[in-house]
Amino acid sequence: MSEYVYPVIMKLKGKNVVIVGGGSIALRKARGFVGTGANIMIISPEINKELLQLPCIQWRKKEFSADDIRDAHLIFAATNNQEVNQSVCQSAHEFQWVNDTSDSENSSFITPAVVRKEQLLLTVSTSGASPILAKEIKQELEEKYAGYGKLVKEYAERREKNESNR
């Protein structure tokens, strides 16, 4: 991945996310969108049964075609077939954000390792250079900041109270 990256946290309520693939990587990506308000569509002839248990998932039981991503804001090529992943990336329009989970160089964005503690959100990225190292750092952060979700909530309540007293 190029050194020209810019980190961002996105509000996804009502946005269309398409994940092409139905295996363990697709499951991991889909889990990350639970609670965001995004519309999540899985495109795959077969699917990990755990995906069907997620509350916000729709599944199209089929092989990928370019029409599947026409209205997508974010796209994940998450199959175990490099040719299909490449086809997904090539089918995306310039204004669409696409991630090839098997090839960060073929992606217009990468996803960081994420630690969520209620409203606290910590992310770690090696800009695609070493997902294993990012995962190790994530695990350290999970341990170090385990109780911080409650602290963020307390600070938010104080802030709200101070703003209402103005």
Brief synopsis:
With 166 residues, the chain is α/β, with parallel strands linked by helices.
N to C succession of SSEs: EHEHEEHEEEHH
Structural class: alpha/beta
Q: Describe the strand arrangement of the main beta sheet, using strand numbers.
A: 3-2-1-4-5
Secondary-structure arrangement, i.e. CATH architecture of the largest domain: 3-Layer(aba) Sandwich
Overall residue-averaged pLDDT value: 92
Total beta strand runs: 7
The CATH superfamily label of the largest domain reads NAD(P)-binding Rossmann-like Domain
Helix content: 25-40%
Main sheet, how many strands, which sense, barrel? Answer: 5 strands, parallel
Instruction: Give the N-terminus to C-terminus distance in angstroms.
Output: 47 Å
Strand content: 15-25%
The radius of gyration over CA amounts to: 18 Å
Poorly predicted sequence stretches spanning 5 or more consecutive residues:
none
CATH classification class of the largest domain: Alpha Beta
Which fold name corresponds to the CATH topology of the largest domain?
Answer: Rossmann fold
Instruction: Give me the number of helical elements.
Output: 5
Shape: globular
- The total number of structural domains is 2
Characteristics:
alpha/beta, Rossmann fold
